[in-house]
Design brief:
The complex is a heterodimer of chains A (about 150) and B (about 150). Chain A is mainly beta and about 150 residues long. Chain A is built from one helix and ten strands; from the N terminus they run αββββββββββ. In chain A, strands 3-10-5-8 form a four-stranded antiparallel beta sheet, with no helix packed on it. Chain A has a four-stranded antiparallel beta sheet with strand order 4-9-6-7, with no helix packed on it. In chain A, strands 1-2 form a two-stranded antiparallel ribbon. The chains are: A mainly beta (about 150), B mainly alpha (about 150).
């Protein structure tokens, strides 16, 4: 009887933890871990320096109401828009390849907003964004950040 | 049996501690929102309750980091204090930004600055309406206490 109880004590937490592992299509590895397609598991990142990497550009209007931004990032790459100006702006972001609809976001003065873009292909992953604004006075810092692979 | 209950509680605690509540505002997020800091100068200006005007040309230079001493940004501090006073009255209603302010005197900022911020709010609303008319979705950033607090950093 005691042995049976002990078995459940081990089996139940094992399945509880197993159920927390997402299906392959939803995999977003925790920071510091990268998706290993061979092992089909989140493994330690072993290339690209391991730590977070980032690249930055800016959209300053005038003179430019749009900017193209491309990076060789990871499967999940975060794009952050930071409004550095006294005036609020509305920014529109189109991602390439077009894995989702255009992201339109308002940025009141001195605010920032960010969005994660993910796709499960081999690293490095080419990401491109077209960022534009209809605001005639804009100063937006744009940063892409990803974990090393 | 008591031992097993404790064991389950421990496992549950560990599992729950790995999830992060969606609405929590971390210090990192707050810092990201605030952008360039003013070392508390904007907070002092708000606290002093004095009249605020901003030299926009100087502000442009400070934002672009063109000044010799990049750690002293008095116009940026004034701009953040003015934005704090103005946006404290702003809310999102029916998918647009709304403010009940009628004049610059109510928040002790210059008329020029008040007109600039008011026109800008209307321009943002017009841009939102234009996109919505095309059937596009717009994420409208809410004016939260965290945002207002970040202006005083």
């Amino acid at each position: 009887m005691k042995k049976n109880k002990l078995r459940w004590v081990i089996i139940f937490p094992f399945f509880a933890l197993l159920s927390m592992i997402p299906a392959k299509a939803d995999v977003i590895c925790p920071p510091g871990l990268c998706w290993d397609p061979t092992a089909e598991w989140c493994a330690l990142c072993d290339a690209g320096g391991g730590g977070p990497h980032s690249e930055t550009t800016a959209l300053v209007n005038p003179p430019n109401s749009s900017v193209n931004f491309a990076v060789d990032g990871n499967q999940c790459t975060n794009l952050k828009l930071k409004n550095l100006n006294l005036l609020g702006v509305l920014a529109s972001v189109t991602v390439k390849p077009a894995i989702e609809n255009q992201w339109n976001v308002t940025l009141p003065p001195f605010t920032s907003q960010s969005k994660d873009y993910c796709r499960l292909v081999s690293v490095p992953v080419s990401w491109g964004w077209d960022i534009s604004t209809s605001s005639d006075a804009a100063n937006i810092a744009i940063t892409a950040t990803w974990a090393g692979w | 049996m008591k031992k097993y209950t404790l064991y389950y509680l421990l496992i549950s605690f560990l599992a729950l501690s790995c999830t992060k509540p969606e609405n929590s505002i971390s210090q990192e997020k707050l810092e990201a929102i605030s952008g360039t800091k003013t070392n508390g100068l904007s907070a002092t200006l708000v606290k002093d309750d004095g009249f605020i005007d901003v030299d926009l040309k100087q502000l442009d230079q400070e934002i672009a980091n063109k000044l010799k001493n990049k750690y002293q940004k008095p116009e940026l501090a004034k701009a953040k204090a003015a934005v704090y006073r103005y946006y404290k009255t702003v809310r999102v209603e029916n998918g647009r930004y709304v403010s009940d302010l009628k004049s610059a005197d109510q928040i002790k900022i210059s008329s020029q600055l008040f007109t600039l911020l008011s026109n800008n709010l209307e321009e943002m609303n017009a841009s939102i309406a234009k996109l919505k008319a095309k059937g596009e979705k717009v994420d409208i950033t809410e004016i939260t206490p965290e945002y207002l607090e970040s202006l005083l950093q």
